Amino acid sequence: MSSFPEFADPSADALPLWLVRPGENGPDLPTLPAKVGLIGNAWAAAQGFTGRAGQLCLLPSVSGAVGGALFGIGPAPAPGERPARERFLLARAAEALPKANWRIVTNPEGFDLTQAALGWLFAQYRFDRYKKGDAPMARLVCPESVDGPRLVAMAAGEFLARDLINTPASDMGPADLEAAARDLATRHGAQISVIAGDDLIAQNFPMIHAVGRAGAQPPRLLDLRFPGEGPKLTLVGKGVCFDTGGLDIKPPASMGLMKKDMGGAANVLGLAETLARLGLTSGMQLRVLIPAVENAISASAFRPGDVLTSRKGLTVEVNNTDAEGRLVLADALALADDEAPDLLISMATLTGAARVALGPELPPFFCDDDGVAASLQNAGRDNADPIWRLPFWEPYETMIEPAIADLDNAPSGGFAGAITAALFLRRFSESARHYVHFDIYGWQPSAAPGRPKGGAGQGMRAILHALPEILG
């Protein structure tokens, strides 16, 4: 990883950080120790510190050195109040405090220290493969009430996903994505098998082959199995390492971010990293499938109007070569479905329609089971990983049924693009007890606390925290 999340050594010296709410007559300041208390209150007042959310005030000691800091967290939330505008408020402090170890010494009622500490870890991320930047400076001593190793495991999965997405296709083609998967398998004792090139035809993965055969690197299907017993969880991630749009070529403005089109693969690998670090894979049968391809242009590229026969036997009319993600996912889902997993999840940067509907920060998910959907949405809400349910709207099934084949990969008209894509994928996942599809963006378009501009994990923590309830 470009950087690795970690907390400060709890035995090391650390400066105090007070979390402060605004009060009716000014900030609700704590009693400060003597080394900063002699001037701390007056200094805070002189700096105009009120305790509003995100406000930081460094406090000098009597010797003139930094003696601590006040950080405003805003008023206590009212019951049922809408989510805060910023998910990881304390990450602002992590990004602004001077280099030192810091220890939170107050715990205001209604403030989630677990999410605050996780946001601090997220703020440590740096992608420095090509350009060295400043290392994260402020380190947090994990609060005693917080499960530090669990947060580090979640942050490690997030960092892995960010690294994979941020790496350009020149260094993250199908072979490089395979190498990253092999590295993860080696670290956690998983088995990995790979089917590549023309072997995909021989072993009946025709749509993965068709989409990827024009690429500079051969297409492949990555299949990871983690040691464990229990319910079957299979994760399928779209691994389109670069998407030109194929012969239906994208305009330059739409192609600029297409290194992130393997964001689904990055997210399932990041989730697997977290599950393995937490030791949860021993209590389930975890499988990860990634069709890794480039959607490129050459004499061998698949064409608009082609009819492909999928692994499942369903025929698919290609009405847009830029709707390739659902094609490669379909073959991988059909393989996963052979084992009738208890929970089958696909994650993909699949449709622009999802972004038009919900924007870049709120990925939709699709699920037929109300209980599973509620578990996921509640887990996302409670763990600062927002997701939103959209329907498998069955009246739209006719939109994906063309005249000359079983399925259409790109219905005309442009209506309900995220839903029709999800309906298409559901046709290949009929034996799983529960099927959930996430249409993620995988990218942070502008920097926010704990979330630098660039590759982003979406839905991983929602899934992680919902699994005990879903799998029992």
What does this structure look like?
- The protein has 472 residues and is of the alpha/beta class.
- The protein folds into 2 domains: 15-135, Leucine Aminopeptidase, subunit E, domain 1 (3-Layer(aba) Sandwich), CATH 3.40.220.10; 152-471, 3-Layer(aba) Sandwich (Aminopeptidase), CATH 3.40.630.
- The chain is 31% helix and 20% strand.
- Strands 8, 9, 10, 11, 12, 15, 16, 17 and 19 form a 9-stranded mixed beta sheet that branches.
- β4 (56-60) and β5 (66-72) form a beta hairpin.
- α9 (263-277) packs across α14.
- The longest helix has 19 residues, at 148-166.
- The protein is elongated, with a radius of gyration of 24 Å.
- 51% of the residues are buried.
User: Structural class of the secondary elements?
Assistant: alpha/beta
- How much of the sequence lies in strands comes to 15-25%
Helix fraction bin: 25-40%
Number of helices: 14
How big is the Rg?
A: 24 Å
Average pLDDT metric: 94
Query: N-to-C terminal Cα separation, in Å?
Result: 33 Å
CATH homologous superfamily of the largest domain - what is it?
A: Zn peptidases
Enumerate the spans where pLDDT stays under 50 for 5 or more consecutive residues: none
How many structural domains in the coordinates? 2
* CATH-assigned fold name of the largest domain: Aminopeptidase
Beta-strand segment tally = 21
Please tell me what the overall shape is. Answer: elongated
Report the top-level CATH class of the largest domain.
Alpha Beta
What would you say the CATH architecture of the largest domain is?
Answer: 3-Layer(aba) Sandwich
How does the major sheet shape up? 9 strands, mixed
